[in-house]
Write a structure and sequence with these properties.
CATH topology of the largest domain: UDP-N-acetylmuramoyl-L-alanine:D-glutamate ligase
Largest sheet: 11 strands, mixed
CATH architecture of the largest domain: 3-Layer(aba) Sandwich
CATH superfamily of the largest domain: Ribokinase
Structural class: alpha/beta
Oligomer: single chain
Number of domains: 2
């Protein structure tokens, strides 16, 4: 996992690395520019013209180096600068001196229109709204129909807090070494576009002295988080789990969770469902078993948990009296791994006193609206929600998975992890039910809570990417669960 630092810490990190490796600062800038260009050439054909807009700080220095490298690689490039170059940073001035004579450089107002606009005006250092000529430049660029790409940060967007005023609207943002926190906020997606993170070679040891409890997980070394099973393992070793939920007209939800648990490798999967859903589950999922139903149209208010390794409760559950009693029973009498989703979370929101029954083996998976119902607080912005999620997990000693783009995992020790798998094609009904089944399965297989959640959230997103690459906007939740085995195999999990 990659530690996320604040914008104020970035300069110190760079300096620490430069001193530790005995290199010049412009050499690190060259690495950043090269990393950007290596990505750029895979995305943009050589025949498309490029304009690079540079400020006079180090982000502008990155832009100048990018312009030089792209020009050397055969692109038609023009450079527009804003501000006084003679007052630019040392590395900006160095890269200005080494630009090829054939590369046109002018003030931003005189740059000819291009197919691609690269924004290298401001990086992580900005801490106030844009104004004056800088505001005019960004407004001018935002009106252009070109492909727009930001270097490290969209100009005008603060690195660690909510935006104020005008911001460059990028189609892509290429961030170096780690994503800045602001790029992970959903309300900033319209400005950051698709986030690309590229390493510039700063080793993890250089991050150790910087304090941060927030991390970015892209599935690196994922196999280390997975449990290994012996060749002699039998179905009992792969866990006995219960998926509890479903109600009249909502049996699909619990069906998706059940199939997801089976596809993730659970040995035995039981369903606690109402009588109206028995034939549906038995007929559509022959591998699953149904516990004796307690009600015709909603689940029974109690279930036998003896010998069960993990429980997932909530998909399609409804909020009837029996459903509420079942949530209370599970929280009060079952201390094993428990995944609470959907209506189980909404029931907790209606009965806040029950939150005190949460424990270290409990994981809650709300989306943004369910999280508001759970806490009773409408987050002012995602930065506020990040803090609320951290405080909730700490207070109730549980794990909280706040679903969405860059799903945020909050552990009771205060650590927070942003997940970097998934795609917009997962925004479809039932996707969250699939996650419930995956998490319940890993927990039932004996994974630690932290490993189960990291693996579960990542594979859920990766399976969504695989399904989306085939189905695009037509992706269904059932397509996602069918890609779970492919995601596991991709990570070397047999």
């Amino acid at each position: 996992m990659q530690k996320i630092l604040s914008g104020n810490q970035v300069k110190s990190l760079d300096q620490k690395y430069i001193e530790g490796e005995g290199i010049h600062s412009y050499q690190l800038m060259e690495r950043a520019a090269m990393a950007f260009c290596d990505w750029f050439v895979t995305m943009v054909p050589e025949e498309r013209s490029v304009s690079v807009y540079c400020g006079t700080g180090n982000n502008g220095g990155d832009g100048l180096a990018i312009a030089r490298i792209l020009s050397q690689r055969g692109y038609s490039v023009a450079v527009g600068h804003i501000g006084d170059p003679e007052k630019g940073s040392t590395d900006f001035q160095h890269n200005l001196r080494v630009l090829p004579e054939k590369l046109p450089v002018s003030t931003w107002k005189n740059v000819t229109e291009s197919d691609v606009l690269i924004d290298a005006v401001f990086g992580v250092g900005i801490n106030r709204p844009l104004e004056g000529d800088y505001l005019k430049l960004i407004q001018y660029l935002n009106e252009k129909p070109a492909l727009k790409i930001s270097v490290d940060m969209p100009s005008g967007l603060p690195s660690d807090g909510p935006l104020e005023g005008e911001v460059f609207r990028a189609d892509y943002t290429v961030s170096f070494q780690f994503p800045k926190l602001s790029l992970l906020a959903p309300e900033h997606a319209a400005y950051a576009g698709k986030l690309i993170v590229r390493s510039i070679g700063i080793g993890r040891s250089y991050f150790d002295s910087f304090e941060s409890n927030r991390f970015f997980f892209s599935g690196e070394n994922l196999i280390r988080y997975h449990k290994k099973f012996l060749p002699s393992s039998h179905k009992g070793d792969f866990g006995r789990v219960v998926l509890a939920g479903g109600s009249y007209g909502k049996m699909g939800s619990i069906g998706l969770s059940t199939r997801a648990a089976l596809r993730t490798g659970s040995g035995l999967v039981f369903c606690h469902i109402p009588a109206c859903g028995v034939e549906i589950i038995q007929g559509s999922i022959p591998e699953a078993m149904v516990l004796p139903p307690g009600g015709e149209h909603e689940v029974g208010d109690r279930m036998d948990t003896e010998g069960i390794d993990a429980i997932g409760i909530g998909p399609g559950l409804g909020k009837g009296e029996n459903a509420a009693k079942l949530v209370y029973q599970v929280l009060s009498h079952y201390a094993g791994p428990t995944v609470l989703d959907a209506d189980a979370i909404n029931i907790l929101g209606d009965n806040p006193a029950w939150l005190n029954s949460l424990h270290a083996n409990a994981v809650l998976t709300p989306h943004l609206k369910e999280f508001e119902r759970l806490t009773g607080i409408a987050g002012k912005n995602h930065f506020h929600r990040m803090d609320l999620a951290r405080d909730f997990a700490r207070k109730y000693s549980c794990t909280l998975v706040l679903k969405g783009a860059f799903t945020l995992i909050s552990f009771p020790d205060g650590q927070q992890v942003f997940n970097n798998s998934g795609s917009l094609h997962m925004a479809t009904g039932g996707s969250g039910d699939v996650l419930t089944g995956i998490l319940t399965s890993f927990l039932g297989q004996g994974y630690s809570m932290k490993n189960a959640v990291l693996c579960g959230v990542f594979h859920h997103g990766h399976a969504g990417e695989l399904a989306g690459s085939c189905r695009g906007r037509g992706t269904l939740a059932s397509d996602i669960l069918e890609k779970i085995p492919d995601s596991l195999l991709h990570s070397g999990i047999e």
